[in-house]
Amino acid sequence: MIKITELNKTYNKGKSTEFHALKGLDFTVNDGEMVAIIGKSGAGKSTLLHILGAIDDYDGGEYKLVSDTEIEVGKLNQKKLAEFRNAHVGIVLQDFALVEGYSVIENVMIPLRFSKRKKSEYKPRAMEALKHVGMDDLAKKDVNKLSGGQKQRVAIARAIVNDPDFILADEPTGALDTETTGQIMSVFKELNEKGKTIIVVTHDPQVAEQCERVIEISDGKIVG
Ligand SMILES: Nc1ncnc2c1ncn2[C@@H]1O[C@H](COP(=O)(O)OP(=O)(O)OP(=O)(O)O)[C@@H](O)[C@H]1O
Ligand SMILES: [Mg+2]
Predict the structure, then answer these.
(1) Cα–ligand 1 centroid distance for 159 (angstroms)
(2) pTM for this one?
(3) What is the DSSP letter of 142?
């Protein structure tokens, strides 16, 4: 379970450009939920997602991941933060962020290189992840030669290959047409039905309505 209490984030603290982006957020996300985070541009959605992904810090409140043990993310040092990201979080972004010139399977194996898993596990795990997104047939293809929807499937496979506790997606369908958006949302829903916790930031009502619960943010606060 993700437990967020009184979460605050201020950019450029103490400078003339200081900006209070998150103003005391409180919410929880239970294991196995599929949640959408919506709100206008500048509301703080990506800021929140980056904090949940432990790729940005916060300066007030608490972010805890509660399972058998309890981790307070704000108390981790740099090394532990990297371990946290690798073990617990899978991230999917709007622009896919694949490594050009690598094949599909090579892209999916990248997170495994930073894990503690044996080398002999890399290929079978990557193929398993690709099966989940229906891309195992194209494992050897160069990612440059894929369509947008196929690229996003590969990015999702890369996000799940380490079996994270939850998947974070920031506008994962923002660069896709309506039909492909529907296909990508089906992939997320299937993963969710298999038990994955998924948090999707989106502008798109078509995406939000696929989620069990919607959290609306406005001006750094939860409004619905
Ligand atoms: N590195 C930064 N330094 C200063 N201000 C920032 C920084 N990053 C974001 N902000 C500000 O914080 C606010 C929230 O930004 P954020 O990117 O979280 O919005 P968002 O809800 O994701 O918007 P969008 O829908 O356009 O992606 C914005 O006003 C933005 O200008
Ligand atoms: Mg954003």
Answers:
(1) 23
(2) 0.94
(3) B
Cα–Cα distance, 86 to 126 (Å, whole number): 15
Q: What is the DSSP letter of 66?
A: E
User: Buried b vs exposed e over 140-177: b needs ≥16 C-beta within 10 Å?
Assistant: eeebeebeebbbbbbbbbbbbbbebebbbbbbbbebbe
pLDDT of residue 127: 98
Q: What is the pLDDT of residue 68?
A: 86
Rounded CA separation 172/193 (Å):
19
2-222 has CATH 3.40.50.300 classification: yes
Which residues, 6+ apart, have CB-to-CB distance to 61 below 8 Å?
4, 5, 6, 7, 8, 24, 25
Distance between CA atoms of residues 96 and 12, nearest Å: 28
Q: Which helix (H) or strand (E) holds 137?
A: none
Six-digit token string for 49: 């997602």
Q: Cα of 99 to ligand 1 centre, how many Å?
A: 26
Using CB distances shorter than 6 Å, the residues near ligand 1 are 11-12, 19, 21, 39, 41-47
Give me the residues of the chain with pLDDT under 50, please. Answer: none
Residue 71's DSSP bridge partners are: 65
Structure token digits, residue 199? 């948090």
Tell me the per-residue pLDDT of 160-172, one tens digit each, with 9 for 90 and over. 999 999 999 999 9
Reading the block at residue 83, the tokens are: 């371990």
Q: Which residue has the tokens 């993310």?
A: 73
With a CB cutoff of 8 Å and minimum separation 6, the contacts of 71 are 64, 65, 84, 88
Handedness of CA 196, 200, 204, 205 (dihedral sign): positive
Domain coordinates in residue numbering, the chain: 2-222
